[in-house]
Amino acid sequence: MVVNPGEVYYNPRCREKVVIRTPAAHTNGERIIMDVYVDPGGFVAGYHSHPFSEERFTLVRGRLRVHIAGEDVILKETGQSVLIPPGKVHRWYSDSADDETFMLCELRNKADRFEKLVLRQLFGLAQDGKTNDVGVPGLLQRAVTLPEFADVVRYASPPWPVQRVLYGALAPIARMLGYQSCNPEYMERAPEETAELEELPPEVAAHHLIN
Ligand SMILES: [Fe+2]
């Protein structure tokens, strides 16, 4: 199923809502731009990296704490932006106790694969209560899903070579138990709603190639 502008994807576990601004389909699968709304206390699921993609976060309103390479960067003014290079471990959190945070997230390279893994498979699992408290699926699910998407997202811990061995050993058991790398139901699950895209302040739009 193709991802379209204005579609809304929820991750209830992470308390985040994604509205699609530029889907991968508009850039030959190369880039995606997402409007990300984060409730107070919300966060992205687990420390992770994107081996071949760079990711940029630009604040529209609220406060966002981005942990990258062992340091916290706080985005607190409209138009403040941080670039995560390929392979750098990172995680982000709402840094506001009371207000919603709204930021733009742009991923360059592997965007079509990111849509499939994150917006459909991982968000689908979170919607069905099949992740832990920080939005990461259980070990058997990871064993079948993560090796297939190792070019898109890797969780930071344990080190990837250790994860590979572990997942390789567990994947046959997981498959026997019915776990699938991509659940057809999640691939086809229609977004609950579509939303009007907010007009962006020029200092935010300036960081992104919006089309
Ligand atoms: Fe990321």
UniProtKB/TrEMBL annotation:
Q: Which InterPro entries match?
A: Cupin_2 (IPR013096), RmlC-like_jellyroll (IPR014710), RmlC_Cupin_sf (IPR011051)
Which intervals hold domain Cupin type-2?
36-98
**Protein name, please?**
Cupin
Give the organism the record lists. Kibdelosporangium phytohabitans
